Amino acid sequence: MKKNAKKRLPGSKVKKQRKFTRKKQLQQVQYGIGQKMINSVIMALDEDDKIHIRKIVEGLDEYDLARLIEVLDINHRRQLVEILGDHIDPEVFPELNDVVQEQVIETLDEDQLVNIVNELDSDDAVEILEHMDDDEQKSIINQLDPELKYQVESSLNYPEDSAGRIMVRNFVSMPDHWTVKEARQYLLSDTELPDEFYTIFLTDSLTLHPTGEITLDKLLRAKGDEKLCNIMDCEIVPVDVYTDQEEVAHMFREYGWMAASVVDNKGRLIGVINIDDVVNIVHEEAGEDIMHLSGAEEGDVYKSVFGIFKSRSIWLITNLFATILASTVVKGFQDIIAEISVLAVLMPIVASMGGTTGNQTLAVAVRALATKELTASNTLRTIGKEFMVGVVNGLLFACLIGIITWIMFPTQHELSLIIAIAMLCNLSLASLAGILIPLTLHKLKVDPAIASGVFLIAMTDSGGYFIFLGLAKLILF
């Protein structure tokens, strides 16, 4: 007879129960602020019912309140912030999209901003202050608590998007010669410890260089008389304070870190980067790259019409000149187009297929550069592979378009040969351009996600028209 046997549901019922529970949890997460709540808030804002608004949002955590603020239009957004006033948890502001954050901060007076920043960790405080103009920024910093003021000023001295900007100054560190008992006593007696932490960083007591780290669970399990240096994890890779945040994110992924120590130019431990900050970086950088490839910007959904127009028009103007270049190529062959008008019907097919092929390669190349997958050791192999993919695609679609053109224009057999050769050449060229352009820009320290698209359009359109019309002139005339 088994002891402590528990009554269990049949297998199918257990699965159904688990499925129901999981579904319910997902619904709670997904519908933390449902459309019904949003509509209620909008109605209350339209009626200026301040009591009802405060009652609706009273139970929301900082993340849900941030999402609620973001989904409202700009007028309702400002109205809600004014009504809630000092009742908004300061932790809400770092959760907001950068564009929305700026819009909300504009509605607050200086005293409110000082109170908000004083309640935040140094990295979140820096995130809010770095978007302000210099005078407003200095005025607020001068009114902060002395310790936070020092931390914020130090972080703002480092370049934007560097480890120094995103690191947290409030962390737990100890000399590595302490015993486990001394470490526990310190943790119990120090009232200035961070609200949440899982890793303790150990340093050399003389140089303050990081020597290792130890997790809380390991500290709790260890014997009191053991030295920290004997049980610590000493395989650490400190992050230089000037390291770019993309490189930091790459290091977290490669080493599987939950937290990383940040050191200054003398190797001294001055800050810590936590995994939650890195998740935000990955999300931010991925969003930026995707938007830049199309000439848009992250946060456009929250901007005004004029703001979106201003950010996109520069890319469109650049794209216009690339299109004009392609038109100039066509103009050089206008005499043969006038004589054989069917060429005007077929030539966009070649250019369009080249652009699509190039964009596929471009997307792969930009992502590989961002994730450090494209290195000096595999660059030539990757270029060759992408070129061969373009050649194989070119052969396939050359055959397809050749047959289709033969069927459409049975009396002009030469057109089938011309468009087939042009398709093969342009798709091969587009694949090569799709990887060489971002590699070249990366070598020149230019963000490939921003500039690659325009160069690719210019090359595939102009090249496609030139190859197709040039072959037509060579073969037909």
Report on the structure:
This protein has helices at 11-30, 35-46, 50-57, 62-71, 74-84, 92-95, 98-105, 110-118, 122-129, 134-141, 146-156, 163-166, 180-189, 216-221, 228-231, 245-255, 275-294, 305-331, 334-339, 342-370, 379-408, 413-443, 448-476, and strands at 173-175, 199-203, 210-215, 239-240, 259-263, 269-274. With 477 residues, the protein is mainly alpha-helical. The strands form two sheets. A three-stranded mixed beta sheet has the order 1-2-3. A three-stranded mixed beta sheet has the order 4-5-6. α18 packs parallel to α23 (448-476), α20 runs antiparallel to α23 and α22 (413-443) packs antiparallel against α23 (448-476). The relative contact order is 0.06.
Give me a quick take on this structure.
With 477 residues, the chain is mainly alpha-helical. It contains 23 helices and 6 strands. A hairpin with a 6-residue loop joins strand 2 and strand 3.
List keywords for this structure.
single chain; 477 residues; mainly alpha; three-stranded mixed beta sheet; 23 helices; 6 strands; globular
Number of strands: 6
* Sheet of most strands: 3 strands, mixed
Shape: globular
Runs with pLDDT <50, length 5+? 1-31
Distance between the termini: 97 Å
Q: Which percent range describes the beta-strand content?
A: 5-15%
Rg of Cα set: 30 Å
Q: What is the overall number of helices?
A: 23
Strand order of the largest sheet: 1-2-3
Element-level helix/strand string: HHHHHHHHHHHHEHEEHHEHEEHHHHHHH
Q: What is the residue-averaged pLDDT?
A: 85
Question: Structural class of the helix and strand makeup?
Answer: mainly alpha
Question: Portion of residues in helices?
Answer: 55-70%
